[in-house]
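Lecture 7 notes: from sequence to structure.
We start with the chain below.
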Amino acid sequence: MSPSVAKPDSPVRVTARLDAPLSRWLWLVKWILVIPHCVVLFFLWIAFTVVTVIAFFSILFTERYPRALFDFNLGVLRWSWRVAYYSYGALATDRYPPFSLGEEPDYPARLDIAYPERLSRGLVLVKWWLLAIPQYIVVSFFVGGRHLGWWTGGLVDVLALIAAVVLAFTEKYPRDLFDLVTGLNRWVLRVAAYATLMTDVYPPFRLDMGGAEPDDPRPPR
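Predicted structure tokens for the same chain:
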């Protein structure tokens, strides 16, 4: 797996590219097409949970998140983000997501989290259940619930379906909706990284819309 290239001051980096053209009707059957991914992700998320528990004790006693475990959990998050982006978490690409834990730099949806050399022993005891509560409240409105690694039932899904309906009639995915949907997913992924102990940097209460990170001078092509 490729090493992380995220910037230390922005540990969670979410970028996305709106593909064009998009099929006007493929979105109607994507729930069937992603079933194989959901089956695999079901087991990967079980492993993700176990790995996070192991990482908890490692951080508590050594202040370190074992690199191999970090890379695995990052891979699960990347896989989940790609599936969400293809399906009803965005519907912004028709490129079938690869069955991969790797970085996949050519895929239009990307996630990177900077590997932390040290993590706080004190924060690991409280950040995932206490400090993150305000973020959980916000994110629950965005995504509703998470199933098999991708998110359903919240504002993100409603907006993605609205974009799909517009696409069906106009052959265009509204750019403003894309920017908003991507920003909401970025917020969710930042919270996910914090809550699963992969960073001590508290996610900002800020909606950074668009396919590029706010400090990236060049939007993704």
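Points to note: Residues 1-8 have pLDDT under 50 and may be disordered. Residues 145 and 152 are 6 Å apart (CA to CA).
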